[in-house]
Specification:
With 417 residues, the protein is an all-alpha fold. The chain has 20 helices and no strands. The chain has one domain: Up-down Bundle (Growth Hormone, Chain: A), CATH 1.20.1250.
């Protein structure tokens, strides 16, 4: 009996050592800084726009515009970094993307007009787009088949806590200083990345005469196209919740009759705290059950419940409103599995392209989502309009999950024809 327990402990110890590797640590910290910079605008939106002379309805309208510029940058950046990740290697992209968004976020601290703010949010978006895809690809290709889900779980769980730091910094420092800190953290991380080695699967493929990073094949091949689009659309509820319900929580709270003022920064912090636990829970459950698809379905159902509560709980206290934001964050906390499923659907010569474009295409979907929200808001009001858009996003997401391949036990060391 004692011998069995010792053996089990040794196996657990080896498994832990297999998971907590340098690529996992660096990808986790990289995503931490990525989320800090990505979500900072949502937190300092009102303070920064007031500082450059805007007020009233312009805080919402210009806020949507700047958010869309950031997401448009991420959409473009996802394509650029993804293709380069397959053509030039995963590690090089990590260096390039973090350098670009560090410089851009530092520059955001100097803006004094909507034009310059929009330009630097766009450039920051391009830089931010390369971080997660390259990091996840590197982790998936370096970890054993049965533990790679734990690796992406750690990356996502650690990464989303960057939003909590962003809220803390924004509460204690001027919004310009908050941007400078984000840029500084990125440059510090760049130094840490020096010791990271390239993926073994990529090295094995590199000398072979195969098409690498062929983005167009994802749209010209019927099988790849539908697999690719479904991989993107299962994430719609995540960015509807974060991009609409949480980013514009002060306006929603007022419409819902919340009994006191609601801070966007606090709403973001509680949402991302929920995401930490959601990503951890969904990642752990997918490993425990040996299935990614079943857990995504479970969290999609939880998202339906949490978002419905957001619109039905009226005249509550700010504390209860924040608890609802926490619940929404937990429910949409399948981000790690979402990226993992997408990356595991495709071969080594397309994996970085998919892993970088899928999360950024779904982030880019914030543009049509916010546009639809603005149109629906004018027609039906802020609450009914958002509820309509959210319902459509949830239904599309549920439909997209159908037919996606279960990738839990899939061997990733192959070439996409």
């Amino acid at each position: 009996m004692e011998k069995t327990q010792t053996t089990d402990a040794a196996v657990s110890d080896v498994a832990l050592k297999d998971i907590i590797t340098l690529p996992v640590i660096v990808a986790s910290l990289g995503y931490f800084v990525d989320i800090y910079d990505l979500i900072l605008f949502s937190i300092v939106r009102i303070a920064s726009l007031k500082s450059i002379g805007l007020q009233g309805q312009e805080l919402l309208n210009r806020g949507v515009f700047l958010l869309n510029m950031q997401m448009a940058g991420m959409l473009l950046g996802g394509i650029i970094w993804g293709v380069l990740g397959d053509k030039k290697g995963r590690v090089k992209i990590l260096f390039g993307s973090i350098f670009l968004y560090s410089v851009a976020n530092t520059a955001n601290g100097f803006v004094d007009s909507i034009g310059s703010y929009a330009l630097w949010r766009f450039i920051a978006g391009i830089g931010l787009a390369g971080e997660l895809g390259a990091g996840v690809t590197l982790v998936l290709e370096n970890l054993p088949k049965n533990s790679r889900g734990y690796g992406t779980m750690i990356v996502a769980s650690v990464g989303v806590t960057g939003a909590i730091l962003a809220n803390f910094i924004a509460k204690h420092f001027d919004w310009r200083i908050a941007y400078f800190i984000g840029g500084g953290l990125g440059l510090l991380l760049l130094i840490m990345r020096i010791g990271v080695f390239e993926s073994g699967m990529y090295k094995e493929m590199e000398p072979r005469q195969v098409k690498k990073g062929d983005l167009f094949s994802l749209f010209t091949d019927r099988r790849k196209f539908f697999k690719y689009m479904k991989s993107i659309l299962i994430g719609l509820p995540i960015w509807f919740a974060v991009g609409i319900l949480i980013t514009f929580s002060p306006e929603f709270a007022k419409a819902l009759g919340v009994s006191g003022p609601v801070s966007a920064g606090e709403a973001v912090m509680f949402c991302y705290l929920g995401l930490v636990f959601g990503d951890f829970a969904s990642g752990f459950l997918s490993q425990y059950m040996g299935s990614r698809r079943k857990i995504v379905l479970l969290f999609q159902i939880l998202s339906c419940v949490a978002i419905a509560l957001y619109f039905t709980l009226r005249n509550i206290s700010p504390s209860l409103f924040y608890i609802n934001c926490l619940a929404i964050g937990f429910a949409v906390g399948y981000w790690a599995i979402f990226i993992t499923i997408a990356a595991e659907q495709f071969g080594t010569n397309l994996r970085a392209t998919v892993a970088s474009t899928v999360p950024n295409f779904i982030r880019g979907m914030v543009i049509p989502i916010t546009f639809s929200f603005q149109v629906a808001k004018e027609m039906f009001g802020i609450l009914q309009g958002a509820a309509l858009v959210g319902t459509i996003c949830l239904l599309i997401s549920l439909y997209a999950l159908r037919g996606l391949e279960e990738t839990f036990h899939k061997d990733l060391n192959y070439i996409e024809e």
